[in-house]
Design a protein that fits this description.
Layout: E1 30-35, H1 39-54, E2 58-60, E3 68-73, H2 78-94, E4 98-102, H3 108-114, E5 120-121, H4 127-137, E6 161-165, E7 167-168, H5 179-183, E8 187-188, H6 191-203, E9 208-212, E10 227-228, E11 231-232, H7 235-243, E12 248-251, H8 264-268, E13 275-277, H9 285-291, H10 297-310, E14 315-322, H11 329-342, E15 346-351, H12 369-392, E16 398-407, E17 410-414, E18 426-428, E19 440-448, E20 453-457
Parallel strand pairs: 1-2, 1-3, 3-4, 4-5, 6-9, 9-12, 13-14, 14-15, 18-20
Antiparallel strand pairs: 7-8, 10-11, 16-17, 16-19, 17-18, 19-20
Helix pairs in contact: 11-12
Region (Disordered): 1-29
Binding site for [4Fe-4S] cluster 1: 38, 74, 103
Function: Catalyzes the methylthiolation of an aspartic acid residue of ribosomal protein uS12.
């Protein structure tokens, strides 16, 4: 496999690093977990570990303490596949007993071809098969006085925020993506089940719910927006229900369907964070057509203007692909011009690369790697300039922040416009004594950089 175009520091599809669990008791069977890829995969890892902990397993934070290691893989891009194969190899080298699951597990021959000694390979969200493989490798040995007491869910993120997955799969057929092949068509969770999970999380101390799926706007379409136990499976209704719980609610992966405009008043009213993560991918109609994406960039600008008219504080985040097969310099310039008009607040960008099984591989006129890189640099220069200008305009303003961590130098926080790991931070370097992760407070902004802010607590 060739060297990756998009190493981890250039990819916006990566979830936060999992946090370590408590030390096991003597004699307790112990499993390690490596979770790669997006937040949706991180939720799968949490579900697997929750089931294992309920069966009496401990979770090891390192290879040496684990009797076997589960690697939850990503198959989104060839660079992600390479990262997954490297992680499997490292786990085999350091531990020797490895069970593979996740998106790349949908192609077991790729994994066993590179690493024939893995104990088992399962596909995405095949929880029972993963548990069966763990039982075979490391038989459970629960302590009936400790381990069989119902336990809370295992969280791989800091306790003050949590990802809330509302559906699996996707009904789109984008030429560059194989997610529907790996994870299937859209399968929405019942709304009452989502709300109950959110209620439990908030009761356990979660202050921020990050709503995720492959297509959040389409939530409930497959089950005809069914209503049960007082909750309707429609994204607007779900957002309203979640917003009533008292935690921050952040929406990710929202396609700009017309009904998305119904979410904006909820943001203006403070029920949901004024933040939309929308995968625009490109702006030129011909590039979007080749991607098999909706080609309505001009109308999208009008829609963005409507959103901002209703909720002036809204933060818009998106990801784009440069160097898609057939992308001309004129098409790329259209993307730059569109970005200059849209002035999105947060932007991520991929250099296109082939993904095994994707229909885009067969398209003509692939863009040379050096041109992709040059366009990526130009795109990020424009995006960075827009970000710096927007943040500079916020100096002197007041904003709410949530504290992520505190050390001797200060507190690292996020504003409503910043999702964990993928967006910027607001740093407090004075008067931070007494702050703790999960605190939500008002801050006055003192300084701005290209992507980050600095401020101080402001009680006024």
């Amino acid at each position: 496999m060739s060297s990756p175009l998009n190493p981890p520091d250039l990819r916006p599809d990566i979830a936060p690093a999992p946090t370590a669990q408590a030390r096991p008791r003597p004699g307790q069977p112990t499993i390690g977990m490596i979770s790669l890829g997006c937040p949706k995969a991180l939720v799968d890892s949490e579900r697997i570990l929750t089931r294992l902990r309920a069966e009496g397993y401990a979770i090891s934070p390192d290879y040496a303490g684990a009797q076997a290691v589960i690697v939850n893989t990503c198959g989104f891009l060839d660079s992600a596949r390479m990262e997954s194969l490297e992680a499997i190899g490292e786990a085999l080298s350091e531990n020797g007993r490895v069970i593979v699951t996740g998106c790349l597990g949908a192609e077991p021959e790729v994994i066993t071809g590179a690493h024939p000694t893995v104990l088992a390979v399962t596909g995405p969200h095949q929880y029972e098969a993963v548990l069966d493989a763990v039982h075979a490798a490391v038989p459970p040995a629960p302590d009936p006085f400790v381990d069989l007491i119902p336990a809370g869910a295992v969280s791989l993120t800091p306790r003050h925020y949590s990802y809330l997955k509302i559906s699996e799969g996707c009904n789109h057929a984008c030429r560059f993506c194989i997610i529907p092949d790996m994870r299937g068509k859209l399968a929405s969770r019942p709304a009452h089940a989502v709300v109950r999970e959110a209620e439990r999380l908030v009761a356990a101390g979660v202050r921020e719910l990050l709503v995720i799926s492959q297509d959040t706007s389409a939530y409930g379409v497959d089950i005809r927006h069914a209503e049960a136990q007082g909750h309707r499976a429609h994204i607007t209704d779900l957002a309203r229900d979640l917003g009533s719980l008292g935690a921050w609610v952040r929406l990710h992966y929202v396609y700009p369907y017309p009904h998305v405009r119904d979410l904006i008043p909820l943001m203006a009213d403070g029920l949901v964070l004024p933040y939309l993560d929308i995968p625009f991918q490109h702006a030129h109609p011909e590039t979007l057509r080749r991607m098999a994406r909706p080609a309505a960039a001009a109308r999208t600008l009008d829609e963005i203007a409507r959103w901002r008219a209703v909720c002036p504080d809204i933060t818009l985040r998106s990801t784009f692909i440069v160097g898609f097969p057939g992308e001309t310099e004129a098409e790329f310039q259209t993307l730059l011009d569109w970005l200059g008009e849209a002035r999105l607040d947060r932007v991520g960008c991929f250099q296109y690369e082939d993904v095994k099984g994707a229909r885009a591989n067969a398209l003509p006129d692939h863009v040379p790697p050096e041109v992709k890189r040059e366009r990526w640099e130009r795109f990020m220069e424009v995006a960075g300039r827009i970000s710096a200008e927007k943040l500079a305009a916020r100096v002197g303003q007041r904003t709410q922040v949530i504290v992520d961590s505190v050390d001797a130098d200060g507190a690292t926080c996020r504003t409503p416009g910043d999702a964990p790991e993928i967006d910027g931070n607001l740093f407090i370097d004075r008067d931070f004594e007494g702050l703790a992760p999960g605190d939500i407070l008002s801050v006055r902004i003192d300084e701005a950089g290209d992507y980050d802010l600095w401020g101080h607590p402001d009680a006024g």
